[in-house]
Automatic annotation (TrEMBL):
Superkingdom, natural source: Bacteria
SUPFAM superfamilies associated with the record: ARM repeat (SSF48371), Leukotriene A4 hydrolase N-terminal domain (SSF63737), Metalloproteases ('zincins'), catalytic domain (SSF55486)
Keyword tags: Aminopeptidase, Hydrolase, Metal-binding, Metalloprotease, Protease, Repeat, Zinc
Name listed for the protein in its UniProt record: Aminopeptidase N
Catalytic class of the enzyme: hydrolase
Origin species: Hymenobacter yonginensis
Length: 799
């Protein structure tokens, strides 16, 4: 079991005075902690302090200091206090220490890839591809790698952090900058103070050469810290932040409570982003874009901005008491992405978020099914999965649908108001909803938060004697998963009029009878598309076509487009799909393009002409790129002119799709045109060129290009395509020429810090081993020496 941590002391305040040894990658610190016994009298204070050199531990009382005895095992600092303290008596201890994060044994997870707390990026300035920076990442319990604390989410503290840095560097921490002092040695000391209490894992600092773009919201500072070269595009990514602050404050009925709101982009961040109170950290690749790249950014960057901001209510203002209750933080932040899409971009955009999130959870559920609130896990990082995020967000969507918008947001207001500046557990959320609605909701919270799995439904219907008979079967294994209670809306379309029926499924096999004056044109189960379920719903081609033309929501139009079967004899279907190429929402147009891939029916010429028009003229770069991919799927057809035209598109995504298409069907001059883009800094273009060369290249110049551009490729792209493409390319090089490339791949497979890179390099070596059997022994040796269990599991699957 993993219960909430027992509270012996309340951590009231933390004051830190820190400076940095960049060459050794050490933090030199003095921490002054104010604590008091939670309830029972205490003679000892136990702190989390990982891998420090402890210089001194003193009691501070009325300006006087007194040495205290302590024991330290490199993880816990156990301090013997000078006397017994009662719960009404705070005391203050001062600890002088050196933090050495690089000497810690590194752990981590898929969501947060390392847990050493403090990270120096290019500390000596030797890497010309990135700036010198340092930053911290506290979640889950990484902050005790750089300051002594009680590193548990059910603690709350105010804080003040003084950072001494070189005068040319900027600093950032939680709260407001209350002083900045120039020192005689050319350094500067900035002091940041947060007067509102938060959990220790939310403390942060960042140091670097940042450009600061300033905004405001209701008189509070709203700043964006980015690399100087991105100062002109920062507002395009972060600029909706004041609107989000306004929208979420009004929707929740609780104004954003903190002193400021700053967002900083850093290099090599170990997570996507982190909701440190008032000072959110982002992995720079998520939010820093050149002007031409902005066309392809879409909603992804903005959704991350919304997600981290919403945490300032759910996670920072009210904090999960234990990692077992993590969905109280992450489900809400996840759901904010749908709320913002709905508010800013409309119902179709919100429907797309709902669809993508549900699919992400269902993908994970193929191999893992856990309760949302779970007290059994191997390590707390295991909680950071698609259950806590994507499933949790979908559960909140169902809860909102069930109680109604007014009650949903009134309940959230009650929850936030009753639990502000404190830690919480799932029962408190349930009680807030029950007190607001007057209804016992234990059934909902039990089946969705406390039980594993989801419904797997088969839905069929028939019509006779003025009645629709709808049969709903729950097919999930009820040994481990409940038979669900599912309030849901069924819409019956008759005489071109929709009639909504609210039903509640409660049995494993249940038939509902719904009145209808005539045979319906469509019967749609879960017409609001709000259920978290796998649904197999029987409908005819005619019903699906009717669904597309009459349904208003994105999800119903998308479902019709993707489930229609395009047969050569069915002109109405292909005609409908061609009309869907003009749907008002881009994701439906994209689905229609994909449905028409390899179409060979009687409208073949018209379909291909339509796809060419979409590839050239659709206003969405995503749809244009998909149309190019669809054209490339027609064998024995020549669309090279469209592919070559795409190389001049304003969107890098479209340029990339053009290169990918030409890789399969190269023209006489395509290699020259692709080579002209070799120095592109765009990730998609770079990886597409690698694919082109892997299929069509053979020159030593291209070989040198692969080697030279390797440092410019992200870890994920190295794994997904670049390193395997490099290996495929090398198969066409003379064996003697391959040696440098093979050595590079082997070095990455053995020593790259990133698991993605090690796996990508291993994949590359595996490709080469098909024609170089001697590499099989190298692969075996790499496998035998790998220490990461997750990587070893991937190696086993690759064999």
């Amino acid at each position: 079991m993993q219960p909430a941590a027992t509270i012996l002391h309340d951590l009231l305040d933390t004051k830190l005075d820190v400076r940095f040894d960049w060459a050794k990658q050490w933090l030199l610190g003095t921490a002054t902690l104010t604590v008091k016994p939670h309830f029972y009298p205490q003679t000892q204070l136990v702190l989390d302090a990982k891998g420090f050199d402890i210089k001194s531990v003193k009691l501070v009382n009325g300006g006087k200091e007194k040495n205290l005895t302590y024991t330290y095992d490199k993880k816990k600092l156990t301090i013997t206090l000078d006397r017994t303290y009662a719960r009404t008596e705070p005391c203050q201890v001062r600890i002088q220490y050196v933090a050495k994060p690089n000497e810690l044994e590194v752990g981590g997870s898929a969501a947060i890839t390392q847990d050493k707390g403090l990270y120096f990026i290019n500390p000596l300035g030797t890497d010309k591809t990135k700036p010198r920076q340092l930053w911290t990442q506290g979640e889950t319990e990484g902050n005790s790698c750089w300051f002594p604390t009680i590193d548990r989410p059910n603690q709350r503290m105010t804080q003040e952090i003084s950072l001494t840095v070189e005068s040319g560097l900027k600093t950032l921490s939680n709260g407001l900058l209350i002083s900045s002092r120039k020192n005689n040695d050319g350094t500067r000391t900035d002091t940041w103070k947060q007067s509102l209490a938060h959990a220790p894992y939310l403390a942060m600092l960042a140091v670097g050469d940042f450009a600061v773009i300033s905004d405001t919201w209701r008189g509070k500072p709203v700043d964006y810290y980015v690399d100087p070269k991105f100062s002109n595009t920062a507002r395009a990514v972060f600029g909706n932040t004041p609107q989000m602050l306004d929208y979420f404050s009004k929707k929740l009925g609780v104004d954003f409570p903190w002193e400021k709101y700053t967002q900083v982009a850093v290099h090599d961040f170990v997570s996507g982003a982190m909701e440190n109170t008032t000072a959110v950290t982002f992995e720079q690749s998520l939010v820093q874009f050149a002007p031409r790249e902005l066309a392809d950014v879409g909603y992804d960057a903005e959704s991350t901005v919304a997600h981290e901001l919403f945490h300032h209510w759910f996670g920072d203002y009210v904090t999960t008491e234990s990692w077992a209750n993590l969905p109280l933080n992450e489900s809400f932040a996840d759901y904010s992405e749908l709320l913002w899409a709905e508010h800013k971009y409309g119902a179709d955009a919100a429907g797309l978020v709902q669809q993508e999130k549900l699919n992400r959870y269902l993908e994970e559920a193929q191999s893992k099914r856990e309760p949302l609130i779970r007290y059994r896990y191997a390590k707390q990082e295991d909680m950071f999965d698609r259950h806590s995020y994507d499933k949790g967000g979908r559960v909140l969507h169902m809860l909102r649908n069930y109680v109604g918008d007014d009650a949903f947001f009134a309940s959230l207001n009650r929850y936030l108001t009753q639990n502000k500046f404190s830690s919480s557990e799932i029962a408190k959320l349930r009680i807030a909803f029950e007190e607001t609605t007057g209804e016992d909701l234990m059934w909902f919270f039990d089946q969705w938060f406390m039980q594993r799995g989801h419904p797997e439904l088969k839905v069929t219907h028939s019509f006779a004697n003025g009645q629709v008979s709808m049969r709903v079967q729950q097919l999930q294994d009820s040994t481990f998963t409940p038979i669900y209670r599912l309030p849901v809306t069924v819409t019956v379309w008759a005489n071109n009029q929709p009639t909504d029926h609210r039903i509640t499924v409660t049995k494993a096999d249940q038939t509902f009878r719904l009145p209808s004056s005539q045979r319906p044109s469509l019967v749609k189960f879960d017409s609001q598309a709000q259920l978290l379920a796998e649904i197999e719903e029987e409908r005819t081609q005619d019903e699906l076509m009717y669904q597309y033309t009459h349904a208003k929501s994105y999800l119903q139009r998308y479902e019709a487009v993707t489930q229609l079967k395009v047969k050569s004899a069915e002109l109405p279907v292909s005609t409908l799909l061609r009309s869907a190429l003009n749907d008002p929402f881009w994701a439906v147009r994209q689905a229609a393009v994909q449905a028409l891939r390899r179409y060979k029916g009687p409208e073949g010429n018209a379909v291909r002409q339509d796809l060419q028009q979409v590839a050239m003229k659709d206003k969405s770069s995503q749809v244009r790129a998909t149309a190019l991919n669809a054209l490339a799927s027609f064998s024995n057809e020549n669309y090279s002119s469209a592919f070559l035209t795409a190389l001049n598109d304003s969107s890098y995504k479209v340029v990339s799709a053009g290169i990918q298409a030409l890789a399969k069907t190269p023209t006489a001059d395509s290699q020259e045109k692709v080579a002209a883009m070799q120095e592109s800094q765009n990730a998609e273009v770079l990886t597409s060129i690698a694919t082109y060369y892997s299929l069509n290249g053979s020159s030593t110049e291209q070989y040198q290009w692969f080697m030279r551009r390797l440092p410019d490729v992200s870890d994920a792209d190295l794994y997904r395509s670049y390193l395997p493409d490099f290996a495929t390319f090398m198969l066409r090089m003379p064996p003697i020429e391959r040696e440098k490339g093979i050595q590079r791949l082997e070095s990455l497979a053995r020593t790259a810090p990133s698991t993605f890179v090690r796996l990508g390099a291993y994949r590359g070596l595996s490709i080469l081993a098909s024609s170089m059997p001697t590499l099989k022994a190298t692969l075996q040796d790499i496998r035998s020496k790998e220490k990461d269990e997750q990587v070893k599991a991937y190696y086993a699957m690759m064999q």
